């Protein structure tokens, strides 16, 4: 047991980039102050690992839960049809029910549940098979906010998926769970997007001039002609996407399956079949990019419902068909 | 190009005595000739017009397997190449390739010893260079034969019996180059305007500087411009009936803050139907020559794709730049990288690229 833990720690340390190693060990919080100071971070990683092993007899490895919160993709699920007592589920009951249901279904498995200060319940599941011990190097993380229907999952295997769904629905007293079509690298961002925890702008009849923008007026004539139009565009952009700092989304995918309509091209317009294409928008902060496109005029105002659905509906995967007018978020997802 | 060679700015390799005019006069002459004055050089009007062909023949897929050495073909097809243009080579002889190989190998070793061609992670001891002719790629008589350059080496601490691996490859080619231009060159010049390379950057630099020293030519990076990328999209889509393209993927970057990247992937059958409909509409009025594709049809095709996008997202793709076009037949990036994945369409791709290179050359 000790040897495998040692090996595991070695592999874990090797995976963490050297720059982040110090920060991670501090976050880990298992080393005392003296031990941390004794670690010489200018040494090579191998030397560091040996030192670490000697310093802490590795016992509990339920540890580096948040080691790299921004690596890997988080996928969102939504719980459906709450039962009458769903609202009253609290932590101990959830923990007990979840562990109980999951261990009924799986033998070799390690489950650790922990509640963080921001009301999020973090679950770490490491799966093994009938021949091997749980694989702690590739755990599945599940984050759930009690009393909300949202669940965020990272690194879910196809083997675990149905079992996890079942355990979750039972433990939270719901009837089902479905994919919510929202994915991203940054957990706090997708959570903020879904729960609308960012600065929103509500439609007003009379636009007030934006106070925070103090753009230098370059040319009086241009400002006179274009000032009003530009301000209107900015307002529409902020209304569609929000004010201030926006949650970080990396991409949005649209599966388009609509008919090709072009008055200049009769052949294609008369065609029976739809024009199938896939459009993927990507950026380091997608919502910021889209908002800046809208305010600079690259995207025409008012912003099309297809794009404004991203913050509005809190999703970034859409299947667009002709059946519903505008941006349909119908079209059940076929694949994710 | 006579004024240039007479000006004495170049010393030919055979050491023949060259008529030297006075320095200032020769400088003026060569300067003007670099600007491409047609009267001085007798360069064809087609090149001084400095535009890509407005129409070209539709690509016929060609089975190169029996014309080209299959090993060479496999090499061309499997990798992504970085492109450059090359000005005409002076006194390059296809018959002296072995001597060139030895010279280049010696040059590489010399550069390494001087510390100019050093790559920290790789320690190579000896280099073996092979230059070979790739026959069968060119069809017209004016085109010079393609030359393939390969550098083999093995790491410093390898065992004796370990074979040398190819660490760098490159090729020089001219496929369907403009005949008027090629014929206007003086006798001693060989025109191989397109250079593709793959491998470590320091070796590419060494090879280029050897060529520049030996054949008095100039290399420059060849970016694939927007029009050429559009041509690739149209030509490859046109091939769908003969070779399944699997998808037509285009990558645009939009100047937002932060920059936005849009990947637009179209189903191949739908792209094919759209392409045909655009061809029909465009050539409705004019007598149709089925084999030739006009620039208007190409821009019409792209415009139709952009307007379909606009109808959904109300975002005009023209505000951004087209960076990459790819299908199963290959991929072309605006930074000057090309991949030709299907051997049957290599000639069509190289024809378009040769044209880009010829236009991009300063002389």
Automatic annotation (TrEMBL), chain A:
Pfam families: CENP-N. Its main location: nucleus. InterPro entries: CENP-NAC/CAD_complex, Chl4/mis15/CENP-N. GO terms for biological process: CENP-A containing chromatin assembly; chromosome segregation. The keyword Nucleus applies. It is found in: Chromosome, Centromere; Nucleus. Signal peptide: none annotated. Belongs to the CENP-N/CHL4 family. This is Centromere protein N. It comes from Oryzias sinensis. The lineage of its organism: Eukaryota, Metazoa, Chordata, Craniata, Vertebrata.
From TrEMBL, chain B:
The lineage of its organism: Eukaryota, Metazoa, Chordata, Craniata, Vertebrata. The keyword Cell inner membrane does not apply. Belongs to the CENP-L/IML3 family. Its main location: nucleus. It comes from the Eukaryota. Residues 1-25 are annotated as: Disordered. Pfam families: CENP-L (PF13092). One of its GO terms (cellular component) is nucleus. InterPro entries: CENP-L (IPR025204). Keywords: Centromere, Chromosome, Nucleus. The keyword Nucleus applies. It is found in: Chromosome, Centromere; Nucleus. This is Centromere protein L.
């Amino acid at each position: 047991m000790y040897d495998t833990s040692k090996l595991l720690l070695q592999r874990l340390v090797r995976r963490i980039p050297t720059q982040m190693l110090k920060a991670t060990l501090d976050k880990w919080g298992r080393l005392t102050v003296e031990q941390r100071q004794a670690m010489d971070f200018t040494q090579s990683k191998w030397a560091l690992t040996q030192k670490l092993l000697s310093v802490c007899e590795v016992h509990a490895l339920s540890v580096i839960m948040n080691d790299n919160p921004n690596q890997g993709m988080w996928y969102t699920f939504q719980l459906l049809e709450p039962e009458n007592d769903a609202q009253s589920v609290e932590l101990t009951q959830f923990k007990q029910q979840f562990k109980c249901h999951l261990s009924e279904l799986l033998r070799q498995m390690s489950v650790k549940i922990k509640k963080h200060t921001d009301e999020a319940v973090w679950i770490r599941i490491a799966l093994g098979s009938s021949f091997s011990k749980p694989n702690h190097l590739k755990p599945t993380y599940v984050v759930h906010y009690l009393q909300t229907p949202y669940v965020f999952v990272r690194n879910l295997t196809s083997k675990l998926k149905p079992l996890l769904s079942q355990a979750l629905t039972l433990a939270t007293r719901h009837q089902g769970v479905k994919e919510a079509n929202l994915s991203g690298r940054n957990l706090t961002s997708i959570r903020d997007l879904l729960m609308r925890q960012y600065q929103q702008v509500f439609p007003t009849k009379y636009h007030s001039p934006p106070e925070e923008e103090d753009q230098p007026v370059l040319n009086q004539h241009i400002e006179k002609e274009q000032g009003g139009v530009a301000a209107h565009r900015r307002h529409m952009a902020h209304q569609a996407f929000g004010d201030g700092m926006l949650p970080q989304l990396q991409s949005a995918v649209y599966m388009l399956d609509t008919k090709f309509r072009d008055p200049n091209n009769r052949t294609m317009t008369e065609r029976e079949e739809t024009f199938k294409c896939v459009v993927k928008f990507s950026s380091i902060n997608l919502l910021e990019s889209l908002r800046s496109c809208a305010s600079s005029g690259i995207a025409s105002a008012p912003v099309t419902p297809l794009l404004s659905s991203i913050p509005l509906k809190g999703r970034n995967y859409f299947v667009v068909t002709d059946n519903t007018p505008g941006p349909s978020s119908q079209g059940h997802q076929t694949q994710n | 190009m006579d004024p240039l060679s007479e000006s004495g700015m170049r010393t030919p390799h055979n050491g023949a005595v060259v008529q030297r005019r006075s320095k200032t006069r020769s400088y003026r002459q060569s300067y003007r000739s670099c600007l491409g004055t047609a009267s001085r050089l007798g360069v064809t009007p087609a090149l001084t017009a400095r535009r890509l062909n407005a129409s070209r023949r539709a690509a016929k897929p060609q089975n190169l397997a029996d014309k080209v050495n299959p090993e060479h073909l496999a090499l061309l097809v499997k990798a992504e190449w970085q492109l450059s243009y090359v000005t005409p080579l002076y006194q390059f002889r296809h018959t002296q390739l072995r001597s060139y190989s030895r010279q280049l190998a010696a040059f590489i070793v010399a550069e390494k010893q001087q510390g100019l061609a050093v790559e920290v992670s790789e320690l190579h001891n000896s280099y073996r260079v092979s230059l070979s002719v790739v026959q069968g790629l060119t069809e017209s008589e004016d085109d010079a034969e393609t030359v393939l350059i390969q550098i083999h080496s093995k790491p410093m601490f390898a065992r004796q019996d370990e074979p040398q691996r190819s660490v760098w490859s490159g090729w020089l080619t001219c496929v369907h180059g403009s005949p008027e231009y090629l014929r206007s060159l003086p006798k001693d010049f060989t025109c191989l305007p397109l250079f593709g390379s793959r491998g470590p950057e320091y070796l590419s630099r060494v090879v280029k500087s050897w060529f520049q020293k030996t054949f008095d030519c100039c290399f420059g990076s060849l970016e694939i411009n927007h029009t050429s990328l559009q041509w690739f999209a149209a030509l490859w889509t046109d091939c769908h009936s003969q070779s399944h393209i699997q998808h037509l993927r285009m990558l645009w970057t939009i100047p937002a803050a932060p920059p936005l990247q849009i990947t637009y992937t179209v189903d191949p059958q739908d792209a094919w139907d759209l392409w045909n409909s655009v061809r029909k509409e465009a050539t409705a009025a004019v007598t149709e020559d089925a084999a030739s594709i006009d620039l208007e049809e190409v821009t019409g095709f792209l415009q139709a794709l952009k307007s379909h996008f606009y109808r959904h997202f109300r975002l005009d793709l023209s505000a951004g730049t087209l960076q990459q076009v790819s299908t199963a037949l290959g991929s072309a990036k605006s930074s000057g990288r090309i991949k030709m994945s299907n051997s049957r369409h290599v000639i069509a791709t190289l024809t378009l690229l040769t044209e880009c290179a010829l236009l991009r050359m300063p002389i």
